[in-house]
Each structure stands twice: as structure tokens, then as C-alpha cells.
Amino acid sequence: MDKNLYADHIATLSRRYDEILGECGFDSLNVYSGAPKMQFLDDNPYPFKVNPHFKALVPVTDNPHSWVIYRRGQKPKLLFYRPVDFWHYVPPAPKTFWSEFYDIELLSKPAEAKEFLNAENTAFIGEGDRLQGWPLGSDNPELLINHLHWARAYKTPYEIACLREANRIAVAGHQAAEQAFRSGASEFEINQAYLSAAGQGENRMPYGNIVALNEHAAILHYTHLSTQRLPEAELRTFLIDAGADCNGYCSDITRTYAYADSEFAQLLAAMDEKQLELVNGLKPGLPYPDLHRQCHLKVGQLLAQFGVIKTSAEGAVESGLTRPFMPHGLGHFLGLQVHDVGGFQSGPEGGTTPPPAEYPFLRTSRTIEENQVFTIEPGLYFIDSLLDELKATDLAAEVNWDKVEDFRPYGGVRIEDNIVVRAEGNVNLSRDGFIGF
To answer: On the CB side of 105, how many CA atoms lie within 13 Å of its CA?
Structure first.
């Protein structure tokens, strides 16, 4: 990673943190990376997941019991945990593109951090349940966290470079997964091909990979990973929703494939065109819910074009007929977390602006601005439970149920890209990755 990009990034964060700490009445900030959590009635821990506020400051995602101590106007201090341990891997002392921007102290035991901490005029961010009696400071102050979450929506060039690399890594996995699908691999085998090509294990993935064949594509968060191979005659659809990690930043890409030429393949190609139209519609100044409504209009157009509904696209949106076929939100903020924070905040100080009542699963109500990063992921599905509910309503007469039965074995389609918002033209990190592969 480019050292100069990181230098500009940490300078931006320093200005941001100095201002926010001052507004919230603090002089310093203690940020804890976290500690492993033991499984119930077991002596093995769950996979460690770092505090996102810690990796916002320093790109260390795999080292518990570490700290960043940030004081206004001063060089931040990193307390880096390096135990004397012959059971587990001990990370080396940091000597990399970011290390010179921190005063680094090495800890051989977690308790050694105490001597560096100061609670006076200090905020603490992290899980402190195991740190009783430590000089932590004010515990996770809401106003401070609100300010930090609001600011995280605006990405620095370094953060965008990390997101671009996370997309490049994920695209390698997606390419390998498609090849495995076309060779007749099982869902489990396809996932293994993805992980191998990405060079990242399951615990490093930003979320559980969705690898779905045929009807499983209608299960929005399908992560079962069947080991059963299907006969070639039964291969119809492959939907994969999977990302990767770079310095703690996430990618989140979805692709859907048809095994052979079919009407569903035509629907898939038409959805790809609609998805790119929505990407182009991601403009500064537009409330994100308005773009979500445009998404439903485009889904309605597809439903009408392929004979699934008997009414117009506009009528289907107005009546709510598109919702059973597109039940999730159009997309979300992306960054240090796959569903990055602040999507419903009304302003830097906090407050909540809920999504429209008719679209409860939309993940952001913010107005789109430059340097924000969103996913755009329209979908169209044939979900048994939602279709059964639809059949029990007055809208059932507006549906061509024979056409629904034709499409049901294919499950559904979703296409998702990761987009940097620019006034002069958005940057599609995912499509760029596929072009460069």
C-alpha cells in the first residue's frame, strides 16, 4: 500500500479526531482492539473480530489486547500485543508502510497496557467488560461515537485504495467460483475455489459467503454450502455474494449466472442493464430512498417485460406488487464494515431518520454525497413464502402465476457493485476489477 496515501489519510483522521474530541469535551481517546471470546462450555475462542474503531486508526485486524491512544495534537501511540507464547503465532513488531506514524510500545502481557492509559478528559471506545478497574475514561460516549460514525461515510483516497484492492481480490474469487460452477462443482467446492483464489480464509471474509445453486438463489442470506453435486441436466442458476478484505476494508460483490441459454438468462442480462442504470443514478444531493424507489420501478419494468405481472411498472410500484419480488434494500454504505455505520443518522450529533415505511429493510436514509461508497444491488426473486403471502391478497390477480412457476426453479437474480460517488462520474470498483482481471 502507498505510504503517501496513508500519510494523507492519518493526517485527515488527526484533523477529524482533534475537532470531534474538542466538540465533545475530551482531550484524548483510548481505543481497544478487543479480546477473544470463549465459546460456551469450551476452551476454544470464537474467531477474533477487531473493534472497527481500532482498525479505523491502524490497519491491524488480527491482534487482540492492543490499543491506540490518541491525544489531541500529538502523534498517536500504539500498544501492540506480543506475548511470549509457544502455543500460538506471535505477530512481529510492526515495520510497514504505516508504522512510522505511531509511537509503538510492545506489550508482553495485556495488563501492561494499564500504565499507558489515562482516564482524565478521556473517552474509551471498545468492549470494557473485562477491564473493570482500568483507567479507561468515559465509556463509549454516544455523542463522540455519533460524530465518528457520521464522518466515516466520507472516504479518504487511502480508504478508496483499500476498497479497490478488496474488490480486486474478491473478483479473483468470483472468477474462480464461476469456473467451478460451470465445471459442475458443489456449493461447498465452489466456495473452496473462491477462498483459494482470493487467498483469504473464511474467518477473514467480511461476511459468510453466499454460494447458491438453483432455488437456493431465492434465499437471500443462504450460507448452507451443500456438498452435493448436481447432475448437469439440473444445473440452472448460480448466485454468489462474496467479498474480501484489505487492511480491514471490505468488498461486497454479487453476481448471478445462468448455466445455459434460457429466458432466465435473458432476464439476468436485462437486470444487468438496470443495475448499471442505478449505478449511474447514484448522484450527490439525491436522498438514497429516492434511488431505491427508482430500483422498484426498474424491477417493475422487468416483471412486466417478462410477463410476470399483468399491470404496468408504475402501477406495480404504487400497489406494492414489486415488493415480494424485491424485498431487500437497494444497497448500503461500505467501508470498515460490510454494512458500514451511519446509514440512518440524521446529522453528526446523532438522531435517526428511519427508512420509508413501505421499505423497512433499506439500510440507509442519508442523502448521497461525494466520496461516500455504496453498494448497488437490485434483485428479483421467486421466494416461496412471499409468493404464498401474495397469493392471499387482492394483488394475486395481477400476477401471471404460470410464468412465476417457470422462473421459480431458478431462484432469483442479484447483481451488486461497489461504487465511489463522484460529481463528475462515479467509480465502479467492482466492474473495474472484472475488467482488469
So the answer is: 18
Using a cut of 0.70, tell me whether the model's pTM lies above it. Answer: yes
Q: Per-domain residue ranges for the chain? A: 3-151, 157-436
Parallel, antiparallel or unpaired: strands 249-250 and 245-246? antiparallel
CATH architecture of 3-151: 3-Layer(aba) Sandwich (3.40)
Task: Output the nine-digit C-alpha cell for 207.
Answer: 461476511
Q: CA separation (Å) from 203 to 208, 340, 374?
A: 9, 19, 23
149 φ, ψ (degrees, to nearest 5): -65, -40
Is 274's pLDDT higher than 80?
yes
Indicate the CATH number for domain 157-436.
3.90.230.10
Cα-flanking dihedrals φ and ψ of residue 277, to 5°? -65, -40
**328 in Cβ contact with 320 (< 8 Å):** no
Q: How far apart are the first and last CA of the chain?
A: 19
Q: Nearest-CA neighbor of 331 among 383, 366, 369?
A: 366
Residue 170 three-state SS = helix
CA-CA-CA-CA torsion sign (246, 248, 249, 252):
positive
Q: What is the DSSP string of 331-371?
A: --B-SSSSS-S-TTEEETTEEE-PPPTT-TT----PBP-TT
**CA 240 to CA 220: how far, in whole Å?**
11
Express as a percent the part of the chain with pLDDT over 90: 96
Q: How far is CA 382 from the centre of its chain?
A: 24
Q: Cα–Cα distance between 318 and 363 in angstroms, integer? A: 21
